[in-house]
Design a protein that fits this description.
Elements (H helix, E strand, L loop, with lengths): L21 H22 L3 E5 L4 H6 L13 E6 L9 H15 L4 E4 L4 E4 L9 E7 L2 E4 L2 H5 L9 E2 L4
Parallel strand pairs: 3-5
Antiparallel strand pairs: 1-2, 2-4, 3-4, 5-6, 6-7
Helix pairs in contact: 1-3
Length: 164
């Protein structure tokens, strides 16, 4: 098994209880090794983990859906480290990170929020390669891979509720 190069397991432990159960630990390792480490390598700058594994209580407090991939350790909310949302360069840094994640094409979901990106990976297969943009209030807009890679905004996409 490969070693997590740029991240530590403790970054993905539940923020309220510090737990990272064995199944979640295995899923986190796969997410890091298959998605986040390669993205960090290409991005060339640190990536901050805002949220990784969540216990049921933390997931509810965070407003996560009942089938959230965070509950399994299959998802993380990440952002460029060392930047604040009000920094002039934050938006372009976040867009660059999203572009790299989508370009790699090794993910289940990439959901773009104003201040972070949710990325998930299913180590046992069935990755949907779904790219969404949050519209707020639990609404999402599908975005094509091409729109992300070429920096275009989705114009006529379908809104849907995502299984975060």
């Amino acid at each position: 098994m490969a070693v997590m190069k740029w991240f530590k397991e403790k970054e993905f432990a539940c923020r309220c209880c510090g737990e990272l159960p064995p199944l979640a630990r295995a899923n986190v390792r796969a997410l890091v090794e298959q998605v986040l480490d390669p993205a960090r390598e290409k991005y060339g700058k640190p990536i901050r983990v805002n949220s990784g594994y969540r216990c049921a209580g933390r997931n509810k407090a965070a407003g996560g859906v009942s089938r959230s991939q965070h509950l399994l350790g299959e998802a993380a909310d990440v952002a460029p480290a060392g930047f604040k949302m009000q920094d002039a360069s934050f938006k372009s840094e976040l867009e660059g990170l999203v572009r790299i994640l989508v370009e790699q094409n090794r993910f289940d979901q990439v959901i773009v929020y104003p201040t972070f990106v949710h990325v998930s990976y299913k180590r046992n297969g069935g990755n949907r390669h779904q790219v969404l943009k949050s519209l707020g209030n639990g609404r999402y807009q599908a975005v094509s891979r091409e729109e992300i890679l070429h920096g275009k905004t989705a114009q006529h996409s379908t809104e849907r509720r995502a299984a975060l």
